[in-house]
Predict the 3D structure of the following.
Amino acid sequence: MEKQISCITCETKSCFIIQHGSAEWISIIDICKNQELYERGQYLFREGSRVFGLYFIQQGKVKVISTGLNGKEQIVRLASTGHVVGHRGFGFEVYPIGAVALEDTIACFVDNDKMYEAFMNNPRLTYAMMMFYSLELRKTEIRQRLLAQMTMREKVAETLLHLKETFGLDSKKNTLDILLSRQEIADMLGSTPEQVTRILSEFEDLRLIRKEGKQIHILNEKGLYDIIAAHSMNRNMQTWHTSD
Amino acid sequence: MEKQISCITCETKSCFIIQHGSAEWISIIDICKNQELYERGQYLFREGSRVFGLYFIQQGKVKVISTGLNGKEQIVRLASTGHVVGHRGFGFEVYPIGAVALEDTIACFVDNDKMYEAFMNNPRLTYAMMMFYSLELRKTEIRQRLLAQMTMREKVAETLLHLKETFGLDSKKNTLDILLSRQEIADMLGSTPEQVTRILSEFEDLRLIRKEGKQIHILNEKGLYDIIAAHSMNRNMQTWHTSD
DNA sequence: CGCGTCCTTGAACCGCGTCAAGCCAGGTGG
DNA sequence: CCACCTGGCTTGACGCGGTTCAAGGACGCG
């Protein structure tokens, strides 16, 4: 797949480059009018609210959540610079999920009509978008197995590796370039803060990680990988990292 | 959304009608050359094999499986007459999943090139297919929460309701019009046959269901619903039923 | 200094997976 | 027609992992 799939004209000008390998969109919506700043903790959109379009994250980090059983918050996906958010609602009446900024975030909004127009005029864009959904579907499915069949130890190990892949490391040290509370990590796994703490402490004892303040420093990536591999055999998959 | 989205010409002639409500394709591929019969237990395609195209089920029932951790079989989706199978692999090298006939099944195969050609020539078809993927994504996600947060009791109750929605009831009685082994039900939940048996027996004691031979007769649908609702609060969602 | 929030650790409970034994039905062969 | 065997279903006992509850500690903030 070549890189530049299509240029659609927003209000002013916008261009999406689809990097098919990572299945994420890097938006060069530099002149987009609908740019907006969301502060930490602020909602881009809420679960159940009407769908007006898609959000392209230009800068920042976002968690995509959905309210699960007995009010538990489930983190469906984490997204950062260059990712699309809101596509899970595209074509529907209301959003099945909400999106919250984890840190100050700049996002660009493109409304349904503009997207639809672009899709109708450019089959290749539509096709690319379809493939994007297809990939999302696969990732979600991989994650599904993760939730269904892994132990907590494995889930935590997997999640740490996933966080590294998604957000990378702080330039200074190997600390993950994302700050999540125990509660938030638990929300990704469908578990509890206590359990997360326990397992992280265990990993620290095993010299797999080190806690530095609230940051996490990965000492032995292969060790984490082994924890999963020991039980799973096949992790020839990309990370599950779904999107919304 | 209108019903008839597009007619693409297969080798001979074929026409897909997308019923957007159910997000399933009813294929009227009556003259399609690539029709083929698969007997119970036979694979339509296997996990890891090359992707050549999509399968439209004209008659029968199919389970879509993927090999999970430590070799456990995970049932990703059940499909029956009018459904599409294989779209999870579309656009990729190899299938991430396999499909097995649960009973004698007639499926029609359409190859990648034909699909691609149709997509390029008909943006509305592509758009509709994209929306189909989008819906699949939602369903998979709902199922994700199910696996992550429900207890086994709730999962079994949910699955019974799901089976009823998907396959309906035998005309004679309220028995589910699908025959699954305990093992297969367990594979849908990421559990074990023993656990499924236990819970089904419990449900029988509660007069929620009755076992008639190998068939299951649902006596009190609302009771099953209550089991889920008691703990979940909001089940304002469609069934999760994902596809492959 | 005191308060709130989050993290940490311990202890008790319980759901569920595992192992093992018994049961029932269908199929086969004597 | 019965004896036997086989495979799936059922039920019980047990142990482990994980959730829950509760108490104490670390840190930031007014």
Observations:
- The longest strand of chain B covers residues 73-80.
- The mean pLDDT of chain B is 78.
- Chain B touches chain A through 53 residues (CB under 8 Å).
- DSSP finds six helices and twelve strands in chain B.
